[in-house]
Write a structure and sequence with these properties.
By secondary structure, this protein is an all-alpha fold. The chain is 64% helix and 1% strand. It has 21 helices and two strands. It has helices at 2-32, 55-79, 82-99, 106-118, 126-142, 145-150, 152-158, 169-175, 178-191, 197-200, 205-209, 214-227, 233-237, 240-249, 284-291, 294-317, 319-323, 327-337, 348-356, 360-395, 417-421; strands at 278-279, 406-407. α4 (106-118) crosses α9. The radius of gyration is 30 Å and the shape is globular.
Length: 431
């Protein structure tokens, strides 16, 4: 019995010694490696993009988008209420704009889709894909109700329309070519992994996030000030997603109409649209003029292959200049033309490359491959713009008869202003 007791005492003393030794080692370690001092004046940088969210919150954003689009369709086709559309757009501005800080939006999702199609290593999320596809599908049935009530960029401009002026038709149509160029450049830069132009130069995201550079603040304020007199300038003359909605809305099964029943030709709606998208009834004079333009139509149609070929040639020639925007190409050119920059400790891009372990031949090979991609992409972009220009010219001489005032199905934002000017009854209208 005494032997067991002695053994227990021995083990107890040994455990006590080990505990004291571990405590002393811990104290010694704390003295050798003191806690880092974070009082050096370093300030954690503010993130420029919203933080990642839980998956169910991302899905809730998609659900909110669907609900907003459904409400917009209900107010347009069932209630025919401009006020209802306006309040839905205010909610969308508050939620998708200021609460979600403008991310994600269908406008910027164009770049994610392009990147996922041309860069296999990039996998697009389901929510981003949903934000891209859902408004387009809805527009096939109801027109551009996304622009009317769900887009925060459109809402912030729509609320500030003060005294809109009417632009000459040729000015409207000419400026309407810019979104095609912007869309092409955004897809090209995203597909090559160069940059997300739409997000970088979004004029309103700085307001939504309360954080933007001085130049972007100036750009955003400029758009808002111009929007007081030229309604929705970004939507009409710059928005790349609007190009896609323009195409799909032309095939919409239902679309906003000015009158819910038979038009009485009161002409009260003639100047009601601040976006200049209401088309007047055709007259006998316009019919005779259009018939005389048949020769011009044939000429423009024959010019399309020439315009496409010329655009592709010029686009391919511009690939050296365009590819210079890619960081790898820019870095390779810098190291080749200015090798002394390797000794510049303040050049973060150069020092990061030198620390990565990559060799100069590898960087040059990557830059050459990127330039090849730009050559193909720039040629396609040039051909696309040539095709757009050809159809633009043909559209000037296309003849279509209209007996009443009608909104242009492609350009109409379905905001509902024209409905308030119509004195015909307000009964629901959905055919």
């Amino acid at each position: 019995m005494s032997t067991i007791k002695n053994r227990l005492n021995l083990w107890g003393n040994l455990i006590l010694v080990l505990c004291l030794t571990a405590w002393n080692a811990t104290s010694f370690a704390q003295q050798r490696f003191p806690k880092p001092d974070f009082e050096s004046g370093y300030v954690q940088p503010h993130p420029t993009t919203p933080e990642p969210r839980a998956l169910w919150l991302e899905y809730s954003d998609v659900l909110v988008l669907i609900i907003v689009l459904a409400l917009a369709a209900w107010f347009v086709f069932k209630r025919r209420s401009r006020r209802g559309i306006l309040w839905v757009s205010v909610f969308a501005l508050a939620y998708f704009g200021f609460y979600r800080e403008g991310c994600i939006c269908p406008i910027g999702s164009v770049q994610n889709v392009a990147l996922s199609l041309f860069q296999p290593e990039y996998v697009i999320s389901l929510t981003v894909l949903a934000f891209f596809i859902i408004p387009l599908i809805v527009s096939l049935f109801f027109g551009r109700i996304f622009c009317a009530a769900a887009c925060p960029l459109g809402a912030v401009q729509d609320l500030l329309v003060y005294n809109p002026i009417t632009l000459a038709p040729w000015v409207n149509k000419s400026l309407g070519l810019i979104p095609y160029l912007y869309l092409g450049l955004a897809v090209l830069f995203a597909a090559t992994g160069t940059d997300f132009l739409i997000c970088r130069y979004d004029p309103f995201v700085g307001f939504f996030r309360m954080d933007a550079s001085f130049l972007m603040i100036v750009l955003g304020v400029s758009f808002l000030l111009i929007g007081l007199f030229i309604a929705r300038p970004y939507c009409r003359f710059l928005c790349p997603y609007g190009v896609l909605l323009n195409w799909t809305s032309r095939f919409s099964k239902w679309h906003l109409t000015i009158t819910p029943a038979e038009c009485i030709d009161c002409k009260l709606c003639e100047n009601s649209c601040p976006f200049d998208v209401i088309e007047q009834p055709t007259t006998s004079q316009s019919i005779r003029k259009t018939k005389a333009d048949t020769r011009r139509f044939v000429t423009y149609a024959l010019m399309i292959p020439l315009l496409v070929g010329t655009g592709a040639y010029l686009g391919g020639k511009s690939h050296v200049f365009m590819s210079g925007a890619h960081p790898d190409v820019e870095l390779a050119e810098l190291l080749i033309t200015q090798p002394e920059v390797e000794n510049d400790p303040d050049n973060i891009d150069v020092q990061t490359f030198l620390a990565s372990g990559k060799t100069m031949p590898e960087l040059v090979e990557a830059a050459v491959n990127i330039r090849r991609e730009f050559y193909t992409g720039s040629a396609i972009l040039g051909g696309f713009l040539g095709l757009v220009l050809g159809f633009f010219l043909i559209n000037q001489v296309i003849f279509s008869t209209r007996e009443i005032y009608e909104p242009n199905k492609g350009n109409c934002f379905s905001c509902g202003r024209c409905m308030d000017y119509c004195p015909v009854g307000k009964e629901p209208f959905l055919t």
